[in-house]
Design goal:
Blueprint: H1 20-37, H2 41-56, E1 61-64, E2 67-70, H3 76-95, H4 100-117, H5 119-123, H6 125-139, H7 149-155
Antiparallel strand pairs: 1-2
Length: about 170
């Protein structure tokens, strides 16, 4: 509480200015939160993220203390296919949430296949995030919707009647 010097009354706090940018940002956050709540957002994020290390490690050329370190093997093509499919499955979870069980099972299978094929599944990073994303996709269910007024009116029972119609 702010006090005015010489008085024992609280001073008014300056109100923050509400600008069009703040209102627009608040609306965008609210729309994103609503969009995120209607689909398995985190499952899609983990699934897409699982594809990145699987894609990266076979094609990375690193130097460790001047010694070239390359993880590129003959599994580069397999890692490319698995990584791209995992990213596509993550996007499918976001934009086609009714395919969540198929995408979740496909994610789990591709993630397990990436372990021997793609350099230990992106050095375990891809395997862990893929298993989490596939599990979240299989377990996600859409939120319950509130019944509309028309649904409530059609199921209402007239006064003086029982539900059995007698």
């Amino acid at each position: 509480m702010l006090l005015i010097p010489g008085r024992a009354e609280p001073a008014e706090r300056p109100r923050p200015r509400v600008t069009a940018a703040r209102v627009s940002a608040a609306r965008a956050r609210r729309r994103f939160r609503t969009w995120r709540g209607e689909r398995p957002f985190w499952a899609g994020l983990f699934t897409s993220t699982a594809g990145l290390p699987i894609l990266y490690w076979p094609y990375a050329h690193l130097a460790l203390g001047g010694i070239p370190l390359a993880l590129s093997t003959t599994s580069g093509a397999g890692a490319l296919v698995i990584g791209v499919l995992l990213i596509a499955l993550g996007l499918t979870l976001w934009y086609q949430p009714h395919l969540r069980v198929f995408s979740g099972i496909a994610t789990l299978l591709l993630t397990l296949i990436s372990f021997p094929v793609a350099n230990l599944g992106g050095l375990f990073l891809g395997v862990i995030t893929g298993l989490v994303g596939g599990s979240l996709a299989c377990s996600w269910t859409p939120g319950a919707t509130e019944p509309s007024a028309a649904d409530l009116a059609s199921t209402a029972v007239a006064a003086g009647e029982s539900e059995r119609g007698t």
